[in-house]
From TrEMBL:
Residues 14-74 form the HTH tetR-type domain. GO terms for biological process: negative regulation of DNA-templated transcription; response to antibiotic. Residues 37-56 bind DNA. This is TetR/AcrR family transcriptional regulator. Keywords: DNA-binding, Repressor, Transcription, Transcription regulation. Pfam families: TetR_C_1, TetR_N.
Amino acid sequence: MSAREQRQVASDAALSRQRVVVEAVRLADREGVDGLSMRRLAGALGAGAMSLYYYVASKEELLDAMIDVVFEEIELPPEETDWQSAMRRRAVSVRQVLARHPWAIGLMESRTSPGPANLRHREAVTACLRRAGFPVLMATHANWLLDSYVYGFALQEASLPFDTADEFADMAEDVFLPQLPPDEFPYLNESAAVLAAAGYDPAEEFTFGLDLVLAALEPLRVPT
């Protein structure tokens, strides 16, 4: 056996399902999920591609496990607080986690074989809404509405061409405003100028919309 083959055997022996999944998440964080393949993952692990199938039977099973890692990072709604505060904390946590793993946004609701963290998360959210007095159907509607807002915001935020308020201010002055002559686009020009001066804060923008959603849901519950 050559030295290279010996190293390959040793690397394969050091593998575990957790190591495979964690490395897959790291790769997706760096390069996106579209380019993730068993061959690419095996190369990052220094292992043989076929050896990965001992731990995950398919790419779909790998994606299930990766999404479970993402759900594991999300804070569950605390039981001891009122439902709006609990769901607000959970939603803020989802946004923060998806900012670290933007590739996961489109996969959070796609899994047909959800892992344990995924299921625990959904159970905790449903339990919070049911304890707050939302009937079963209303709790489902509320859950979907909240997730639609959070995932939609996360997707929009991930696609923004700037990362900070300073970058936005520079882009507003150098890129956006020159394309918005006030005689042709008076309201867009005004909005861009005001936002640039005030400082765009995605976290504040997120909380503003989230609080409106939570307030709109309040009348749908039947307090016990």
